[in-house]
Task: inverse folding
């Protein structure tokens, strides 16, 4: 076998985990007098599924918004693919290859599944407004190419039957899947999922877990997810960061986190002796 | 035998027909499949090359003559190809129901002794791996969809396209061997083995020879004048004999095109896009389409509603006559033509039936209103009667002699007779060879002269020579007072109501009949929405008092119509309940072709049946359910039992009889 690069290891199921793609160094985020995130550092390695968990108000979504470029931390550094990232707008972050889904679904309700997923490729479309409007030459070729990529995502997520259905008419679980599709269509290096399984029933959760694992496995996409459902988190993630009141109280494999007394106290709520 | 003419002797197997099609219809489409939102198509020449590559790859894997190759999955060109490729290697394809749980699959795989399995995707591969330890002889799995398969141990499995690639690379080594094996295929060699779903007991492997399949395909194609220009949608289970005849037998014989839908959920849309010329669907399908249409019409504006109602009434009056070529007045013709533009055409188009030249329905009785509805729209919908053991065709309706209550005249080459007990027997070139490894059942079904017992009771109508089927012979029984008990007849009558999906009637040997009802979630759910009734599950909706009241009306209405028939008046439903779960094939309550398994239901719901007969007003019960992945759970419920009014048989016919 060929040598693995330093900083790289194989998981039990044979996936390759590489060096960190994203490093959060001493991040502090304040809203006026409220400190949402207090001096937190962690990294996300290439190819892994990284979970961020914590009770309500722990600062998980804020953390995702920081990564996403929506919030700008007062202190600390963000390193993406080996370089320090300057303060960026969300669309610039998206162009860098970070895509996300939202806790409250943020799709265009009146548009079809297909059109919604197409918007995921917006940042990649190069032809001008006029060319796109008259659908001529490069714009036409471009759209055909992008449609092909989108169709692959549709096939992957098994949502062919709702391709032309306005997403507003879809059940919640499917809308979540469409949102994942839109993020995937951007071919992200890093995929951020904000509570992908919130409000789902057991079957929908299982489906979603399978899709997340498949995305990671098939495309090698690095995934960072926030989730409440402990069972799901422990099952699918490689490493877990635990937050509580803006602080990091645990970081490690699911087993390590599970046996960390502070985590048990803060989150799982099981008394220990 | 006499039917082998010089030409058909050369065309004595499916691979031989494929060879001919690749020459004769080289550039015509053979298979289409919608993938990535686009219909991909393969010509006969391309199909031939694909199948050959797969067959060569199979030889490389060590497929031997006489092997059984199991095929599990939804309708995909690649899976159809693997059936023919297996035949080219001298092996026998055994398609399995793709929604079968691992348990059921284990029995069939064990019984047929398959060494090779062709599976559609990860889901099917997982099922096979789960049972592989028990079914020791499975050597190799070939899978079609690569998704999620990367991490699997590949020492005993391959992707189908990789097998083809190996086959292409190894063609020099195996070409001769393949030709030898393919040329050796004769009329009496096995073409396919299909497992019957079996309403009782274990599934049986029906061995069908090339003669069976090709003769049945040939004469049925001639009967309906099928040509290479037909187009069919392959969406019914591949393990079902009908699909094998339509999508392989007739498709190969005529050289027409088989279209595979994108997924089961997109079937309606794909049907609309393809617009097949030749279409088969079970009665349930035609019912569902009407239910959908009715629901949509209720959402339409007043004018459109009026338009639809007005012209549909006219269609019912003259449509069937026009199709049968009976005289119709000029004014009526003109009005029908107008309706065709405004209503019938668009409805046909939405249903994907614009091009249908011949449509068939079979498997169950179809409601007369439903049947007439489609025919009045100008769709040549006909009925046929058949079974796996006959390579489908026993009787079918010729054009111009179509009625809802018969199943037609004997198909070409088929002899039909009625036994002393009223059971229907047939003999034909399509008659199966044997049940695999089950000489006992073979002997009890097929007598030495080749007559096969269908297990259905029926009679020939005087004058027309059309066959009418009453019920399963073994289900027809007597009630305690000696009157006739025909449960299926009653169940079918109930199922003709759009709100009722399934019904199971009890009463054999008892003093009165009672029934279990399953409501149709689409129809009743829509009604609930319309009336602002909220519900969280099937169970909740099924227990709603208004739903119970509606079903009660249906039952009473049906009782009234039963009372008019002296012979069946005793089968009126006295008490009924709406089941708290839908009857499901995964729980063994229905067969994979969705026929009720009476005995299993009787055992499973014994407590409910007792309650139906002991007069109690409600009953609490807990039922085990099986989820799609094979895990088990349970649901409990308290069910209300309703008494239905029974119509009095006119002027004491019963007393008079006593």
Result:
């Amino acid at each position: 076998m060929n040598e693995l690069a330093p900083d790289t290891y194989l998981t039990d199921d044979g996936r390759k985990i590489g060096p960190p793609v994203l490093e959060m160094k001493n991040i502090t985020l304040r809203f006026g007098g409220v400190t949402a995130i207090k001096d937190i550092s962690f990294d996300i390695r290439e190819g892994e599924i990284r979970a961020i968990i914590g009770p309500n108000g722990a600062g998980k979504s804020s953390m995702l918004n920081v990564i996403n470029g929506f919030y700008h931390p007062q202190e600390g550094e963000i390193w993406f693919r080996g370089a320090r990232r300057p303060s960026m707008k969300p669309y610039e972050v998206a162009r860098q290859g970070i895509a996300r889904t939202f806790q409250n679904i943020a799709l265009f309700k009146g548009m079809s599944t297909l059109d919604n997923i197409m918007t995921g490729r917006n940042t990649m479309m190069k032809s001008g407004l006029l060319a796109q409007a008259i659908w001529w030459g490069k714009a036409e070729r471009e759209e055909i190419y992008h449609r092909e990529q989108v169709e692959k995502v549709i096939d992957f997520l098994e949502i062919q039957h709702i391709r032309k259905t306005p997403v507003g008419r879809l059940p919640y679980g499917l809308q979540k899947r469409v949102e994942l599709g839109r993020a995937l269509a951007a071919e992200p290096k890093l995929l951020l999922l904000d509570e992908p399984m919130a409000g789902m029933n057991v079957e929908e959760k299982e489906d979603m877990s399978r899709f997340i694992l498949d995305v990671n496995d098939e495309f090698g996409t690095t995934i960072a997810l926030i989730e409440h459902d402990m069972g799901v988190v422990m099952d699918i993630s490689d490493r877990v960061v635990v937050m509580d009141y803006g602080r990091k109280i645990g970081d490690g494999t699911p087993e390590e986190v599970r046996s960390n007394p502070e985590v048990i106290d803060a989150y799982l709520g099981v008394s220990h002796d | 035998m006499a039917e082998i003419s010089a030409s058909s002797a050369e065309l004595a197997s499916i691979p031989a027909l494929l060879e001919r099609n690749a020459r004769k219809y080289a550039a015509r489409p053979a298979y289409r499949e919608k993938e990535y939102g686009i219909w991909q198509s393969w010509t006969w020449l391309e199909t031939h090359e694909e199948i050959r590559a797969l067959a060569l790859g199979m030889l490389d894997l060590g497929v031997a003559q006489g092997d059984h190759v199991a095929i599990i999955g939804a309708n995909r060109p690649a899976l159809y190809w693997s059936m023919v490729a297996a035949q080219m290697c001298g092996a026998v394809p055994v398609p399995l129901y793709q929604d079968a749980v691992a348990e059921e699959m284990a029995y069939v795989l064990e019984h047929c002794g398959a060494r090779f399995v062709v599976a559609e995707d990860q889901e099917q591969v997982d099922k096979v791996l789960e049972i592989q330890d028990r079914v020791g002889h499975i050597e190799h799995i070939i899978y079609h969809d690569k998704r999620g398969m990367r991490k699997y141990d590949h020492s005993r499995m391959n992707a189908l396209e990789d097998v083809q690639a190996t086959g292409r690379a190894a063609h020099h080594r195996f070409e001769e061997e393949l030709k030898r094996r393919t040329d050796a295929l004769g009329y009496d060699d096995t073409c396919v083995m299909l497992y019957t779903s079996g309403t009782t007991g274990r599934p049986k492997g029906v061995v069908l020879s090339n003669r069976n399949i090709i003769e049945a395909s040939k004469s049925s194609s001639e009967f309906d004048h099928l040509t290479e220009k037909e187009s069919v949608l392959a969406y019914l289970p591949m393990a079902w004999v009908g699909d094998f005849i339509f999508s392989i037998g007739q498709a190969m014989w005529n050289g027409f095109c088989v279209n595979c839908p994108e997924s089961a959920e997109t079937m309606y849309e794909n049907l609309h896009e393809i617009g097949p010329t030749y279409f088969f669907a079970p009665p349930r399908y035609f019912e569902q389409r009407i239910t959908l249409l009715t629901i949509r019409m209720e959402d339409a504006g007043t004018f459109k509603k009026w338009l639809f109602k007005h012209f549909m009434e006219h269609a019912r009056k003259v449509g069937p006559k026009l199709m049968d070529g009976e005289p119709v007045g000029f004014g009526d013709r003109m009005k029908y033509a107008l309706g065709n533009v405004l209503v019938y055409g668009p409805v046909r188009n939405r249903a994907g039936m614009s091009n249908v030249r011949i449509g068939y329905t079979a498997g169950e009785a179809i409601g007369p209103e439903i049947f007439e509805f489609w025919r009045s729209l100008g769709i040549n919908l006909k009925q046929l009667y058949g079974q796996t053991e006959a390579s489908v065709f026993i009787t079918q309706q010729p054009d111009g002699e179509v009625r809802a209550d018969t199943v037609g005249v004997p198909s070409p080459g088929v002899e039909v007779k009625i036994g002393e007990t009223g059971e229907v027997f047939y003999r034909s070139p399509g008659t199966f060879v044997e049940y695999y490894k089950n000489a006992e059942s073979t002997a009890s079904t097929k007598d030495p002269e080749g007559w096969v017992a269908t297990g259905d009771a029926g009679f020939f109508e005087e004058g027309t020579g059309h066959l009418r089927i009453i019920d399963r012979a073994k289900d027809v029984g007597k009630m305690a007072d000696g009157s006739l008990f025909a449960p299926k007849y009653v169940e079918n009558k109930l199922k003709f109501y759009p709100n009722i999906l399934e019904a199971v009637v009890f009463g054999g040997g008892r003093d009165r009949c009672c029934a279990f009802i399953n409501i149709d979630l689409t129809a009743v759910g829509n009604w609930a929405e319309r009336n602002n009734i909220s519900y969280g599950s099937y169970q909740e909706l099924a227990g709603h008092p208004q739903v119970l009241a509606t079903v009660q009306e249906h039952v009473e209405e049906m009782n009234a119509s039963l009372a008019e028939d002296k012979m069946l008046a005793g089968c009126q439903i006295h008490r009924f309940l709406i089941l708290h779960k839908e009857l499901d094939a995964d729980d063994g309550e229905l067969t994979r072709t969705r026929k009720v398994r009476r005995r299993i239901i009787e055992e499973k719901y014994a407590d409910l049946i007792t309650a139906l007969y002991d007069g109690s007003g409600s009953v609490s019960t807990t039922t085990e359910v099986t989820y799609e992945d094979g895990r088990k759970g349970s649901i409990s419920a308290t069910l209300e039992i309703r008494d239905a009014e029974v119509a009095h048989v006119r002027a004491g016919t019963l007393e008079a009889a006593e």
Notes: Residues 1-8, 651-658 of chain B have pLDDT under 50 and may be disordered. Residues 415 and 427 of chain B are 5 Å apart (CA to CA).
